[in-house]
Amino acid sequence: MGEPPKGTVTSLSSIYSPEDSQKASVRVQETISERQKEVQQLQTFLNDNTNLVNLVKKLPDQLHHDIMANHPHLDSFLISLTLISVPFGKAAFFPGKIIHTNEFLVLLGEGYYADRTSKQTIEILKRRGKDLESQIENLNAVIKDLKYEASFFIETATEAAEGVVEIREDYVDEFLDEEKEAPTEEEYSRILSRIDELEKEEMESEMAEEDEEKEEEEEEEKDKAELSDVLSRTHLEPKVISSEKHMGNEHLKSKESSNIKAPTSSATSNTLSRPIEQKKSEILPQRIVSKNEVSNSGSNMRNDSSQAFTGSIVERTHNTEKSQTSQPIAPPSKPVSRFKMQRK
Amino acid sequence: MASSSAATRELQKELEGKANDLSKIQKDISKNHQVRKKYTIQLGENELVLKELDLLSEDANVYKLIGPVLVKQDLAEANANVRKRIEYISAELKRLDSTLQDMEEKQNSKKEAIYKLQQRIQSLQAGKAKA
User: Fold this and answer.
1) Chain A hits for B86, Cβ within 8 Å
2) Domain A12-162 has CATH 3.40.50.300
């Protein structure tokens, strides 16, 4: 093809060094294990809570319980829950009985306690259990996210280590791709003629056949047409051009936005002002071809102007890329800019 | 030669000072994080208490643990207290947030300054190596 490279090739390892991504993945793994520990802790809280609920349910079944009697259900929870202070000091215990088995003093948190019955206590505990469950759920979601992150880091690390490269390329219409190999002026005009042909085909479908021959002549003429010639013609129909210009700008905008997706589009914005001019120069010749037929019917003209544009947009991308390498295209922009001044 | 080495020394001293400042700010930030964590936990607990207090019937006995003793409290009073506490904690959290933001800005500017200093030192040293 002999054309300058369309995109850039960067090896992934130059952007993300394998060691760094490895480190990052290790760090993410650490946070994951931390979160998992938290989840485990919450899980034990939840288990304690359900045990406590069972215990509180059973307590009021009897009028009193013997504490030292090694009751299967009664463990340390009981002591903290009931008012009987069976542990005496730090080291001493003495036998006691739990009475008022339906009276609980529940710690609500922050040093607040409330007198509650067994049923009310169970309700409180169940609410707490729900709270814990939601917390666990949240943490699990976080862990899931982190795991994805870790897998991404690991993937990047292995890819970088394997020497995977990243290829960035401006988005180019397929249409243009065939004509990509036409950086010189003659080929440029050939492209134009081809676009004209396509345009003509569309035209044919819309327009009466009568003008066809005329048009063909026109086209041939156009193939060699100098741009000054083009210019003088366009003066005849300033309105057509102005409508085209607006359309062109619109297309330009859409093109821009599509370029934004392509990472290397920064160049486009730099060369933006020039493409607009160049574009106009491209538009003009195309318009000329169809003018003869179009000028009689304004409505049709508007229709096909949009069609003519599909071609010209393609051209523009092409030019943006070439603008640094092939200057021959630049000259046409001059007469057009003069024309622009006249239009004002 | 001698002047350039003196300049490098001066720059190095400046760099050291900036680095110290930076580490101090970072310490403050981590402290801020810890305090914030504590407050968020307290806020959650208080909200839980408030929920439970709201669910209690009017005549329920509510106690507050003050030191080693349980003091009986009016439910309405306890409720108001908890609300006030929540308000306080929220305000405190907001304050901590703003200070944290402040500190992070400072940290960034310090980092930038340090980076610039390092570059200057490097260029100086490179110049010396050439000479």
Assistant:
1) none
2) no
